[in-house]
Every structure is written in C-alpha cells, then in structure tokens.
Design the sequence.
C-alpha cells in the first residue's frame, strides 16, 4: 500500500518525456497508462473424453497487471493475469491478453480481450469481454467473462470464469 501511495504522490509530477516513453501522450483517456489489480471470481470447467470430469464450479482469487494506450478514440492494452482456481480442470492459469475497447462517457470502458493462457496443463487461446468503470482518478472496478478450451489425446477441456476486480492506475 505504501508503494501505491508513493506512486500516486509521484504521478502528479511525472516528466512528460517519461509519459511519452510509456506510450501516454496528453491529452489522453482516463484508461491510458499502467495499472495493477486484484480480482475474485467463479470458474466452471469440465473435461469430455478420457479422464472425463463433469462440470463443477470453483471460487478463486486472481491478479492482473497491464498497460493501456490510446489509439485514436480506442483503448488498446496488454494485460498479464494469474488465476488461482485450484479446483478447476486447469488448476491455475496465467497468460497475457490484448484488450480492445472504446470509452463511453469518458469513465466506462467496454472491452474485448484475446490472448493465450498456459500455466497448466497446456497453452490455450484465451478470450473474453468485460466492462471497466473508473470511479476515481486512479481507481476502477471491472467485471468480465473469460474462457478457454483445449483438445488433447481424444479429450476436450473447457474453462470459463466470471470475475469482478479492482484496478489501480499509476497516473
């Protein structure tokens, strides 16, 4: 928390050259720049074929970190994530996604995401969508759906999640 407070105090006086190097050039949307966050969600997953496992639900925490850039009126970003859903068929997932969105009323960002997850048991296409609401200069809440599937040795694995989270933007 001390680190976040120090970053907040420092963000008011960041050198414009440093901001440009980070890809944020003013004026910019409220969603441009680096952020970190935590989330909590529900995961449901199943396996069909060999080693079949019926659909079940697991509650889990997760972490995110990313950076967003303004591209005309759109926001494009990269987000790394780690989901700790030990009871699912994929145990835990970590990866990186590209996020695409367009701010509405300056503080609401509906977005789509696509990328890869691959901590266990294999690398898979990761996809989803959500909405983020900026309620303070540096703080937002987000709700989203994500999913991934994979096929292996005659089987098929499906993994879906719904999450809510809080993000802290460094400026």
Sequence:
């Amino acid at each position: 928390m001390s680190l976040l407070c120090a970053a907040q105090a420092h963000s008011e006086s960041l050198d414009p050259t440093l901001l440009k190097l980070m890809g944020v050039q003013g004026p910019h949307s409220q969603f441009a720049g680096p952020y970190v966050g935590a989330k909590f969600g529900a995961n449901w997953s199943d396996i069909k074929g060999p080693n079949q496992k019926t659909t079940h639900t697991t509650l889990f925490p997760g972490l995110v970190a990313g950076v967003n850039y303004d591209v005309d009126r759109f926001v494009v970003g990269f987000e790394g994530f780690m989901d700790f859903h030990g009871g699912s068929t994929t145990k835990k997932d970590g990866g990186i996604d590209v996020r695409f969105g367009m701010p509405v009323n300056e503080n609401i960002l509906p977005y789509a995401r696509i990328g890869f997850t691959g901590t266990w048991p294999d690398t898979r296409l990761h996809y989803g969508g959500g909405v983020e609401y900026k309620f303070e200069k540096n703080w937002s809440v987000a709700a989203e759906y994500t999913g991934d599937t994979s096929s292996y040795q005659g089987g098929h694995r499906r993994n879906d999640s719904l999450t809510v989270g809080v993000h802290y933007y460094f400026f």
Summary: The chain has one domain: 2-169. The CA atoms of residues 7 and 170 lie 6 Å apart. The chain has a mean pLDDT of 84. The helical segments are 2-11, 16-21.
